[in-house]
From TrEMBL:
Pfam families: ADH_N (PF08240), ADH_zinc_N (PF00107). CDD domains: liver_alcohol_DH_like. Keywords: Metal-binding, NAD, Oxidoreductase, Zinc. Residues 17-371 form the Enoyl reductase (ER) domain. This is Enoyl reductase (ER) domain-containing protein. Transmembrane segments: none annotated.
C-alpha cells in the first residue's frame, strides 16, 4: 500500500468550541487528493491569529485543528502535484499565487483570486482531510500546523532549503514576514525616511527589519514592555518609546522624536483599535502613510480628519508578500542567516504541553513560542 492511500492516526491540538480549552488528541489524517500534499510537521510556532481563532475569528467552525505557522517534510503527494515531491522541506502559506489572475498580473496586490485566503477552515473543494471521533474537522486558514501530520493544497506551500533552521522557517511562514513585507512591499519605505512601529512582537520586529533593509534612518519602536527595547535594537530600531512612561499620547511622543512633523511611515501591529488613530496621527500631514497590520475585533474609532489632510491608510494581508515571488527571498535570507531571527526564539514546548505555550506568551520575556513535534 502506498503512502497516498493510507490514513494516518496522529496527535494534534484541538479546540472544540469558542473559548474552550485546547486539548491534544488523536485524529485521523486522510491521504492527499490530486493537487494536495500531506506534510509531516517538524516544528511550529504561535501567532496572534491562532489565539483569536480559539475565540471564533476568522471563522467559528469547530472542531478546529489549530496552527498556521510551521515547517515540515512532504510525506506524500497527490497525482497532479509537480512543484514538490516526497522528502522536500516546505512551509505553509495562507494565500497562493497563480501569476495569471487579474490581481497577480497587476502587481498591485498579493491577494491572488485563484488561490485566495481560506476562511472556511476547509480545503479548496470544501471538504476536510482531518477528522476526530468520526467528525469532520476544520483548520484555521489553509492548514493545521499544530498537528503531527496535516494536508494542504500544493498551491499554498513554499519549498525551502533543507538546511534552514526549523524554528526560523516557522517564524517566516507568517508573523515576521508579515511585518517585513509591510515595510518592503506595502509601504515601500524610502532610504533616509522615518518610521514608527507600534507593537514589537514578531510582526513589529519584522517591520523594523524591513525598514532597516530599505535604508530608513530613524526607526521608532513603541511598546509597553520595556524588554522589547533590546529586541527592537537587535533588528534595527534607533529609538524606543514606552507609552507608560508619559501622560502624552503615542502620536505626540512619536512627533517629539521626529522634529514635531511626524514620521513618513507608521505600522500598527497590535490590533488595538485606538492605536490605529494614533498611528495615523503620528505621520506627516500631506505625505504620511500608515499600514494597518494588526487585527482585532473592536470597531476602529477614527475620524476622517485623520486622513483628510493628505495622509494615506492602507490595509495589509501577509505584508503584501507573494508566496512564490517574494517569500522565497525572505527564506533565502533566513537560510543564509542574514536576519537576526534567533532574537524571536524565546521559548519552546512539546506539542503535548501546548497549553503551557499560552501561559508563556503572557511573560514579558516571551516573543515567539516554538512547538516541537514528537513524531
Amino acid at each position: 500500500m502506498s503512502n497516498t492511500s493510507k490514513v494516518i492516526t496522529c496527535k494534534a491540538a484541538i479546540c472544540w468550541g469558542v473559548g474552550e480549552a485546547v486539548k491534544v488528541e488523536e485524529i485521523q489524517v486522510e491521504p492527499p487528493k490530486a493537487t494536495e500534499v500531506r506534510v509531516k510537521m517538524l516544528c511550529a510556532s504561535i501567532c496572534h491569529t491562532d489565539i483569536s481563532s480559539i475565540q471564533g475569528s476568522p471563522h467559528a467552525n469547530f472542531p478546529l485543528a489549530l496552527g498556521h505557522e510551521g515547517v515540515g517534510v512532504v510525506e506524500s503527494v497527490g497525482e497532479l502535484v509537480t512543484n514538490v515531491k516526497e522528502g522536500d522541506m516546505v512551509i505553509p502559506t495562507y494565500i497562493g499565487e497563480c501569476k495569471e489572475c487579474v490581481n497577480c498580473v497587476s502587481e498591485k496586490t498579493n491577494l491572488c483570486m485563484t488561490y485566495p485566503i481560506r476562511l472556511t477552515g476547509l480545503m479548496p473543494d470544501n471538504t476536510s482531510r482531518m477528522s476526530i471521533q468520526g467528525q469532520r474537522m476544520h483548520h484555521v486558514l489553509s492548514c493545521a500546523t499544530w498537528s503531527e501530520y496535516m494536508v494542504i493544497d500544493a498551491n499554498y506551500i513554499l519549498k525551502v532549503d533543507p538546511s534552514i533552521d526549523l524554528a526560523h522557517a516557522s517564524f517566516i511562514s507568517c508573523g515576521f514576514s508579515t511585518g517585513y513585507g509591510a515595510a518592503w512591499k506595502e509601504a515601500k519605505v524610502e532610504s533616509g525616511s522615518s518610521v514608527a512601529v507600534i507593537g514589537l512582537g514578531a510582526v513589529g520586529l519584522g517591520a523594523i527589519s524591513g525598514a532597516k533593509m530599505l535604508g530608513a534612518t530613524r526607526i521608532i519602536g513603541i511598546d509597553k514592555n520595556e524588554r522589547k527595547r533590546e529586541k527592537g535594537e537587535a533588528f534595527g530600531m534607533t529609538h524606543f518609546i514606552n507609552p507608560d512612561d508619559s501622560d502624552k499620547s503615542v502620536s505626540e511622543l512619536i512627533k517629539e522624536l521626529s522634529g514635531g512633523m511626524g514620521v513618513d511611515y507608521s505600522f500598527e501591529c497590535t490590533g488595538v483599535a485606538p492605536l490605529l488613530t494614533e498611528s495615523i496621527e503620528a505621520t506627516k500631514v500631506g505625505t504620511g502613510k500608515t499600514i494597518a497590520i494588526g487585527t482585532g475585533t473592536d470597531i476602529v474609532p477614527f475620524g476622517l480628519s485623520c486622513i483628510m489632510y493628505g495622509r494615506t491608510l492602507k490595509g495589509s494581508v501577509f505584508g503584501g508578500i507573494k508566496p512564490i515571488s517574494d517569500l522565497y527571498i525572505i527564506a533565502n535570507k533566513t537560510q543564509k542567516k542574514e536576519l537576526p531571527l534567533e532574537e524571536l526564539f524565546t521559548h519552546e514546548v512539546p506539542l503535548a504541553d501546548i497549553n503551557k505555550a499560552f501561559e508563556l506568551l503572557k511573560q514579558p520575556s516571551c516573543v515567539k513560542v516554538v512547538i516541537k513535534m514528537s513524531c
